[in-house]
Amino acid sequence: MLLAIDVGNTNTVLGVFDGTTLARHWRVETHHGRTSDEYGILFKQLFLHAGLDAGRVKAVAVSSVVPPLSFTLERVARDYFGVAPLFVGPGVKTGMPILYDNPREVGADRIVNAVAAYERWRTGLIVVDFGTATTFDAVSPKGEYLGGAICPGISISMEALFRHASKLPRVEFTRPAHVVGKNTVASMQSGLVYGYVGLVDGICERMSAELGFSPRVVATGGLAVLVAGVSRAVAEVDEHLTLDGLRIIHERNR
User: Fold this and answer.
1) Catalytic residue among 53, 101, 109, 244
2) Torsion-angle region of residue 28: left (phi > 0), alpha (psi -120 to 50) or beta?
3) How confident is the model at residue 25 (pLDDT cuts 50, 70, 90)?
4) What distances in angstroms separate CA 155 from CA 28, 161, 170, 238, one per listed residue?
5) What's the pLDDT tens digit per position in 168-193?
6) 75, 82, 66: which is closest to 39 by C-alpha?
7) DSSP letter string over 101-145?
8) Most confidently modeled range among 103-107, 159-163, 221-225, 245-249
């Protein structure tokens, strides 16, 4: 089995693959102060709760945008699973040319998403990942990583509104019944949801015009389903795109 670990700034997503099948996945908080022993025990408890034998894990693949946790996860892989982990980064075979000014600057999760999306759809793409930041990544019809855009994530945008407008209440990011809200909560939800969807559709539209081909827009991340339900641009949703990308890159580096 392969343990795939996607470390984000807010959450860490773990997936266990048995062959090409995602047998189980979990989402835990990314905690910079947690030790390798604390992470190791947590991971083992998740396996135990799911009825999975952690002893069957023969490989660990990691995508991380939190460099301080790299050493911690290296220790977890070696001490609790008995394997040397594969970290997606320079020197790792992804099978995708990176046409970026400095390829080392591209976040590992963005490359992993692009690899997984191109492997599945084999066409020109824009991959939108709704994480702490929302990232847009363009892939050419030939499977080249072209670049993209980065903007504040949904949670960051909401927190900024709540923090700086003291009379406004905290609301849930959910689609209201109408765009024209009839009370403060509905008005805020309208602005948050339709405002953010407008951002997504607008960037995808402008990127499509610049790319010179008609990309398929694929969304991933925790709120991808909700945004896709309102967006005109998003055609596909795959919540586990990053985990699947880690599996693919692991296979290419065996």
Assistant:
1) 109
2) beta
3) very high
4) 17, 10, 12, 20
5) 999 999 999 999 999 999 999 999 99
6) 75
7) SSGGGS-HHHHHHHHHHHHHH-S-EEEEEESSEEEEEEE-TTS-E
8) 245-249
Cβ neighbours of residue 102 under 8 Å, at least 6 residues apart? none
CA atoms within 13 A on the CB side of 43: 28
Q: What is the pLDDT of residue 231?
A: 96
Task: Please name which of 163, 167, 160 lies closest in space to residue 185, comparing C-alpha atoms.
Answer: 167
Asked whether the predicted pLDDT for residue 223 surpasses 90, the reply is no
Residue 107 CA: distances (Å) to CA of 22, 68, 128, 210: 23, 15, 14, 22
3-state secondary structure of 210: helix
Instruction: Provide the β-strand partners of residue 12.
Output: 7, 28
d(CA 185, CA 193): 12
Could you confirm whether 137 is annotated as catalytic? Answer: no
Pairing of strands 125-130, 216-221: parallel
Residues 84, 218 contacting (CB under 8 angstroms)? no
State yes or no: pLDDT of 222 exceeds 90. Answer: no
Contacts of residue 40, Cβ cutoff 8 Å, sequence gap at least 6: 75, 76, 79, 80
First to last CA, the chain: 13
Query: 56-107, pLDDT tens digit by residue?
Result: 999 999 999 999 999 999 999 999 999 999 999 999 999 999 999 999 999 9
Distance of CA 218 to the CA centre of its chain: 12
> Which of 178, 203, 140 shows the shortest CA–CA distance to 219?
203
Instruction: Indicate the DSSP class of residue 54.
Output: G
